[in-house]
Design brief:
The chain is α/β, with parallel strands linked by helices. It contains 17 helices and nine strands. The longest helix is centred in the middle third of the chain and has 24 residues.
Length: 349
């Protein structure tokens, strides 16, 4: 085969190289929630089917994953799915309601927990693996395909509350009044999450990300028990089966605990939330790739201030492995042209 026409090796993918610890310049860029409602083509697809149907229909999920790649040439394409696919796959009722978000049948007792069947996950998530398989063939050769899951604690929050919450009071109460039940829920999620992510890797995912969006509500000892330890187990399980697959961890609002998280979980990349100082974190955790962490509101506002902020984050981490991203997801009404300008700013030499 002519070498000029040969497929690129995985090492030719900037994002994959950075996730494996290489200092790539300019840093690769992708954005959390880059396939979202800010894109008109996404909204057009939204009118064709409800959210869960879009997640579980490979044609739709593939298209939605590809949309920001076509527009902006992102270095990473993250699977279009949702962290609550796992409890749904185990048998928990799930509905996404406009203006309210996810609604689940709350898990409040041992009887509720026993209704879940982790053995259903493999079959129920087959469409997700099919989407990944298709994307591994349809993405540009330079684009890294990312799978993901919610971390056990964050997923447990939604499962116990029956949806979103401001304070997750029912979850925190269960942790205090019935720790054995909460431990069983976390254990079930830890095992199922690890197996589901291995399935995503086997279907074509080149790296995976664990979203622990509500890690920051926990005090240190609970953070160690319900965030660090389950993540460590998941990472170990993945590494035993797929030792070359990078794992990104996102303990959002973890504060001073993120150093311990990075050191003890074994993740390859630490995703930083908006409030973290990348330059300071770089000194605290020198042996992992950092991802992040521009404020999504800065992207929403755009202009020269956005360019300065993006290049300031980028330049502060020059010389070490870094993936440019936001500290949270793209906001709903972000002008699409701002995203294009951001990608240009990050890639400007």
């Amino acid at each position: 085969m002519n070498s000029e026409n040969a497929p690129l090796s995985p090492s030719s993918k900037p994002l994959l190289r950075a996730l494996k610890g290489e200092a790539v310049w300019p840093p690769p860029v992708w954005l959390m929630r880059q396939a979202g409602r800010y894109l008109p083509e996404f909204r057009a697809m939204r009118d064709k089917a409800d959210f869960l149907t879009r997640c579980m229909t490979p044609d739709m999920a593939e298209e939605l994953t590809l949309q920001p790649i076509r527009r902006y040439g992102m270095d990473g394409a993250i699977l279009f799915s949702d962290i609550l696919i796992l409890p749904w796959a185990m048998g928990q009722s799930l509905e996404f309601i406009d203006g309210r978000g996810p609604v689940l049948g709350a898990i409040r007792s041992q009887a509720d927990l026993e209704k879940l069947d982790p053995k259903r996950v493999q079959d129920a998530t087959a469409p997700v693996r099919e989407t990944l398989s298709r994307l591994s063939k349809s993405l540009p050769d330079v684009t890294t395909l990312l799978g993901f899951a919610g971390s056990p604690f964050t997923v447990a929050c939604y499962m116990v509350e029956g949806g979103g919450s401001r304070d997750f009071a029912n979850t925190r109460k269960m942790m205090q009044t019935d720790p054995a039940l909460f431990d069983r829920l976390i254990e079930t999620l830890t095992i199922s999450t690890a197996e589901m992510l291995c399935g995503q890797i086997e279907a074509g995912g080149e790296a995976v990300m664990l979203f622990d969006s509500w890690a920051g509500i926990l005090p240190p000892n609970a953070f160690r028990r319900y965030v660090i330890e389950p993540t460590r187990q998941i990472v170990r399980h993945i590494q035993e089966k797929h030792p070359n697959t990078p794992i990104i961890g996102f303990p959002r609002l973890g504060g001073i605990m993120i150093r311990e998280y990075a050191e003890k979980t074994g993740v390859n990349t630490l995703a930083l939330d908006t409030v973290a100082d990348p330059a300071q974190i770089a000194e605290l955790v020198p042996n992992v790739t950092l991802q992040g962490n521009m404020d999504p509101m800065v992207l929403f506002s755009g202009g020269e201030a956005m360019v300065r902020e993006a290049q300031g984050i980028r330049d502060a981490l020059r010389g070490r492995s870094h993936v440019f991203n936001l500290g949270h997801g793209v906001m709903q009404h972000t002008p699409p042209e701002n995203v294009g300008a951001l990608v240009e700013a990050v890639r400007a030499i």
